Amino acid sequence: MRALGLDVGTKTVGIALSDELGWTAQGLETLRRNEEDPDDDMQKIAAIAKEHKVGTIVIGLPKNMNGSIGPSGERSQEFAESLKKHYDCEMVMWDERLTTVAAERMLVSADVSRKKRKKVIDKMAAVMILQGYLDRKSM
């Protein structure tokens, strides 16, 4: 069964999908959040999960460097709770410290322009979140 990885931001949600064996994560899309109707975001993600027969959703949990959970982390946890109402599966909160920084560095080293980086950074962060989960799970 596949897993979906989410990098939840205030403006966008980066989405990644695992292969059927659960070995690799690939970027799927970046969803622009609907500020007026957050329920719309949940329905879109649930539709993607249903389409791909997802059994686990891995949501990035931004923690502070000392391991505590701040306002961003609390928003991610609330997002997960809301998503559970739209799609019933295992929800895993995954420590995402520095994933966006690592994704940015990877794109810079690949010589991706600033304009293009902005379009794919959230999707790349979702890939890193999901791949971290998949790697840990296979140990």
CATH level 1 class label: Alpha Beta
The low-confidence parts are none
Question: In the residues, how many domains can be counted?
Answer: 1
Q: State the shape.
A: globular
Radius of gyration: 14 Å
β-strand percent reads 25-35%
With helices defined by DSSP (H or I, 4 residues minimum), what is the helix count? 4
Largest β sheet strand count, sense and barrel closure: 5 strands, mixed
EC number: 3.1.-.-
Organism: Alkalihalophilus lindianensis
Main location: cytoplasm
Subcellular location: Cytoplasm
Summarize the structure.
It is found in: Cytoplasm. With 139 residues, this protein is an alpha/beta fold.
Could you please describe the fold and organization of this structure?
There is one protein chain. The protein starts with a strand and ends with a helix. It has a 5-stranded mixed sheet with strand order 3-2-1-4-5, with helices on both faces. α3 (99-109) packs across α4 (114-137). It has a single domain, classed as Nucleotidyltransferase, domain 5 (2-Layer Sandwich). The protein contains 4 helices and 5 strands; from the N terminus they run βββαβαβαα. Helices cover 45% and strands 26% of the residues. By secondary structure, it is an alpha/beta fold. It has helices at residues 38-51, 71-84, 99-109, 114-137, and strands at residues 2-8, 12-18, 25-32, 54-61, 90-95. β2 (12-18) and β3 form a beta hairpin.
